[in-house]
Structures are given as structure tokens and as C-alpha cells.
Amino acid sequence: MKTKTILSWSLRLTVSIILLQTLYYKFTAHPDSVHIFTALGVEPWGRIGLGVVELITAILILLPKTKTIGMLNSLGIILGAVFSHFLVLGINVSNDGGGLFTLAIIVLLACSLYLFLHFEEVKAILRKLKP
């Protein structure tokens, strides 16, 4: 396999695994998740809605035909998470030692690197969106 292919798969798997792993907390109304979305003023619908969007995004990332759309969507989601940490939640949420923020940064970096590596695909997608 080519290096770019291996790296791309690694980045996609990293993002998908992190998105899927956090779904447990969102869908079971874990107290930490409820705390986060309460602080953001969108509990419970924001928590559940974002969980559904993250599930769909993780699936899109894993499917060959929609992987770049999924990574673009994930970048949007994670930018919202990072800004939420900076503006509302703080880095250390519920005494997690910055764990959630670290995962958000990992996803942000993985998405950014993937989209940089596949910039031609990103441009093609964006061209299709123009009226």
C-alpha cells in the first residue's frame, strides 16, 4: 500500500473511532455529557441531535464514496467542540484533566491533515456546491 493510503486510512479510523466512542456518553445521558450540554444550553436535544449527526458522520468517513464529505462534516463538528471548550466549558471538563479537549484536538488535526492530503477531492466537492 502507498504511504498516502495508509495515512489516510489511519486518519479516517482515528476520527471515526473517537466519534463513535463518545456516542455512548451522549446516548446514555451520562452525567458528564449532560453537564456539557446543559452548560451549552442545549440539553437534551443538542446532545441527542449531535450524537445522531456524529453517528452519520462516522459512517460517512468509513464509506469509500463519502469519506471526504464525512471528514469535512467532522471538521465542522470538531471546530464547534473546540470553540465550546475555549468559550464556555474550559479545557478541564468535570475534572477530566483535559481529556475531552485533547480528543477534540486530535480529531481537529486528523481531519485537517486528511483534508490537506485530499485537497483536490475537497475542491471538487466544493465546486459541486456552487450554484
TrEMBL record:
Transmembrane segments: 7-25, 45-63, 75-93, 99-119
Superkingdom: Bacteria
GO cellular component: membrane
Membrane-related topology note: Multi-pass membrane protein
UniProt keywords, alphabetically: Membrane, Transmembrane, Transmembrane helix
Chief localization: membrane
Protein location: Membrane
Name of the molecule in the record: DoxX family protein
Species: Flavobacterium piscinae
